[in-house]
């Protein structure tokens, strides 16, 4: 096979290099990772000259190369870049480079494949944060129709190589009220594959797939990561073959998981993959998080201004929508400093429990004889924003929508399967159903000057097919996801100031595809602070705190039944887009005064919390956590020291405060607005006792290099440390 080097593209940003050799027949990735610096042609040629491995025994007679579109033609025996066929033929593609455009931080590759008859366009964009976004368009030329058969596209997988030293894999699993649970393992020979078949990322979503050097942590170690920015079915993989991937050790890849027959390309049609976001860090997982946070904050549509303190009514009133009670709740919310009140489930026609009414997006006249106006006016009159809960993608069978338009439901012609949470999906791919939902939402937002929608999505998509004539049903998850995006985009275009939250049984749809058109996520239905400490810790691996809803719940958690102290609940909820999920009418004056102090602290610290760098400490004891946010200029920081369980060790010893400058000098104090924690000790440490009374000055070398002894907290307690640089 002829192999010639045309030129080398070198994209650089934020300490990252991505180097691609534009060679014949296919380009190959020479390097992705640490910045190689400004390199001339000779140095890049040397990188190319050292990019071929050995010819192995019982192997192809040329060195294997891992190209930008790996196939069997390269000697690649792992997951191919794309899979498909045309009437059972054209299954062994041999694409060739047809053209390339190289910019400062963008590379576009155009490939043609005579075997499949497809034209491929790969776009690599390295943003200012060092995140590499990759999309692929697979197109069938308009004139390619001689045999009349569609091209059935089975998979498109974006694959990048990683070095042999990356041998440990991290991703996530979870369940309702325990989302984003990390799981780690050695990457053995073979494939580590995560397939999502729920029509949403799911409560057990992989979220981030990372490969790193053994033992990588929050603050240390070299790590390569991937996030698939898509809200439907997904496939993620880390793969290691005995012969490697060219001179690389393994590959990292992902994309949309397509159902058989879901994408059938006729002449002139194309498919564009979801964006896969690849990140690299030599500063552990916090380094990856920095890149994602910087990328998101640089978006033109990133939420601007202070994130309003929110009260959601669900755990306050549930379906008990009495106007007098809700007006009192709004008044008390304004008194404690709430800036946005969200009326949750139960306001629309026939909705007295979760078995009926879903799909009928008009106000229930029996419960709200004067409409929502009295409550919306009271909320706006207090200077607060008014929000509503909606679940437009779903319907109960006991609803006007389902009775009058059963053809709008997403499900087989042979009949619907079992319900989930008493509901079924509305087929957003049906133009009439889509238009109805847009009109209903547009009307309610306009009529009541709604500032905010909590957009929920409470079931998996099972047997998600579009009904066809004669029972010829077609897979529908891809079309459903694209129609959702169009619905959100159109609604936002009509109401530019409207904010939307992505909720999905809590944290079941947390991805950067949905966040391209929403303003925050509900990380979990669980407000128990013991669970929330872990959920928020790992949600922040991709999302900055201002995009993560973090609410204070009642003393007895609705989801776990666990009783926790107010100080622990308040300190935990501070580190995100904070809010209240509790019935203020059931709290006494002292409890509401504590909420008022906490609300003032949130407003004081939110410029730091929502603009600084998230840091997390690596500790040997899983029962304690130390996390915080450090200002980008290093001028201040706020840390949370929390204990979720007892430990065998009586004390933690010296603990490093991550993110501080060892050469600096700092003042430290304990913030007591949430209330002080209960301690599992007699007294001390001495510096801590002094910090309870006021500022204590300490050098950065002590705080960040030697560490300071932290108090031993009782389980279910948290402490806030306020740090200000003085030099």
UniProtKB/TrEMBL annotation:
Residues 70-100 are annotated as: Disordered. Its EC number is 3.2.1.22. InterPro entries: Aldolase_TIM, Alpga-gal_N_sf, Alpha-glycosidase_related, GH, Glyco_hydro_27/36_CS, Glyco_hydro_36, Glyco_hydro_36_C, Glyco_hydro_36_N. Keywords: Glycosidase, Hydrolase. Residues 629-714 form the Glycosyl hydrolase family 36 C-terminal domain. It comes from the Bacteria. The keyword Hydrolase applies. It catalyses: Hydrolysis of terminal, non-reducing alpha-D-galactose residues in alpha-D-galactosides, including galactose oligosaccharides, galactomannans and galactolipids. Residues 26-266 form the Glycosyl hydrolase family 36 N-terminal domain. Coiled coil: none annotated. This is alpha-galactosidase. It comes from Streptomyces tremellae.
């Amino acid at each position: 096979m002829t192999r010639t080097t045309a030129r080398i593209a070198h994209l650089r940003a934020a300490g990252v290099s991505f180097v691609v050799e534009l060679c014949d027949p296919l380009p190959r990735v020479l390097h992705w990772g640490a910045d190689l610096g400004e390199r001339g042609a000779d140095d890049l040629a040397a990188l190319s000259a050292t990019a071929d491995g050995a010819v192995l025994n019982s192997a192809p007679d040329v060195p294997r190369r891992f190209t930008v579109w790996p196939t069997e033609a390269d000697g690649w025996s792992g997951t191919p870049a794309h899979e498909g066929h045309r009437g059972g033929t054209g299954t062994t593609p041999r694409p060739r480079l047809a053209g390339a455009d190289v910019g400062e931080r963008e590379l576009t590759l155009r490939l043609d494949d005579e075997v499949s008859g497809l034209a491929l366009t790969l776009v690599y964009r390295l943003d200012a944060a060092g995140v590499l976004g990759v999309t692929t368009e697979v197109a069938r030329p308009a004139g390619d129709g001689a045999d009349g058969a569609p091209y059935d596209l089975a998979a498109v997988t974006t694959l990048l190589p990683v070095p042999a030293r990356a041998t440990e894999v991290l991703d996530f699993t979870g369940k309702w009220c325990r989302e984003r649970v990390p799981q780690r393992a050695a990457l053995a020979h073979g494939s580590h594959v995560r397939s999502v078949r729920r029509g949403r990322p799911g409560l057990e979503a992989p979220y981030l797939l990372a490969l790193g050097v053994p033992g990588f942590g929050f603050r240390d170690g070299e790590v390569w990561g991937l996030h698939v920015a898509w809200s439907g079915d997904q496939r993620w993989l880390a793969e290691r073959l005995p012969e490697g991937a060219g001179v690389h050790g393994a590959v990292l890849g992902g994309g949309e998981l397509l159902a058989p027959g879901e994408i059938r390309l006729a002449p002139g049609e194309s498919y564009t993959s979801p964006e896969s976001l690849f990140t690299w860090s030599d500063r552990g997982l916090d380094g990856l998080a920095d890149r994602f946070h910087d990328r998101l904050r640089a978006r033109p549509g990133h939420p601007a201004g202070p994130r309003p303190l929110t009260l959601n009514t669900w755990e306050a009133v549930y379906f008990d929508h009495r106007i007098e009670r809700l007006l009192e709740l709004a008044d008390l919310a304004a008194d404690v400093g709430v800036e946005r009140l969200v009326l949750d489930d139960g306001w629309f026609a026939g909705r007295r429990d979760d078995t009926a009414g879903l799909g009928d997006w008009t106000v229930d006249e029996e419960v709200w004889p004067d409409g929502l106006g009295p409550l919306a006016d009271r909320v706006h009159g207090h200077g607060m924003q008014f929000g509503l809960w909606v679940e437009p993608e779903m319907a109960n069978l006991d609803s006007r929508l389902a009775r009058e338009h059963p053809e709008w439901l997403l499900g087989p012609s042979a009949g619907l399967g079992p319900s989930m949470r008493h509901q079924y999906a509305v087929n957003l791919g049906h133009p009439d159903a889509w238009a109805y939902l847009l009109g209903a939402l547009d009307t309610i937002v306009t009529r009541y000057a709604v500032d905010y929608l909590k957009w929920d999505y409470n079931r998996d998509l099972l047997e998600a097919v579009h009904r066809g004539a004669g029972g010829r049903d077609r897979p529908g998850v891809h079309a459903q996801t694209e129609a959702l995006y169009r619905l959100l985009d159109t609604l936002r275009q009509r109401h530019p100031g409207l904010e939307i939250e992505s909720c999905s049984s809590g944290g079941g749809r947390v991805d950067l595809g949905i966040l391209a058109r929403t303003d925050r996520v509900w990380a979990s239905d669980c407000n128990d602070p013991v669970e929330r400490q872990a959920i928020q810790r790992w949600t922040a691996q991709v999302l900055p705190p201002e995009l993560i809803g973090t609410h204070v719940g009642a003393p007895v958690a609705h989801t776990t039944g666990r009783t926790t102290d107010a100080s622990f609940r308040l300190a935990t909820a501070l580190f995100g887009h904070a809010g209240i999920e509790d019935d203020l009418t059931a709290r006494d004056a002292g409890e509401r005064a504590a909420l008022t102090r906490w609300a003032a602290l949130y407003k004081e610290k939110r410029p730091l919390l929502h603009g600084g760098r998230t840091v997390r400490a690596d500790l040997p004891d899983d029962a304690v956590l130390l996390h915080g946010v450090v200002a980008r200029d290093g001028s201040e920081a706020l840390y949370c020291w929390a204990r979720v369980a007892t430990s065998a060790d009586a004390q933690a010893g010296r603990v490093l405060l991550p993110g501080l400058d060892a050469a600096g000098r700092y003042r430290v104090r304990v913030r007591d607005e949430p209330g002080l924690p209960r301690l599992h000790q007699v007294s001390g440490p001495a510096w801590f006792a002094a910090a309870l009374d006021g500022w204590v000055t300490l050098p950065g070398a002590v705080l960040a290099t030697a560490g300071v002894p932290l108090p031993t907290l009782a389980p279910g307690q948290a402490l806030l440390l306020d740090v200000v640089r003085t030099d």
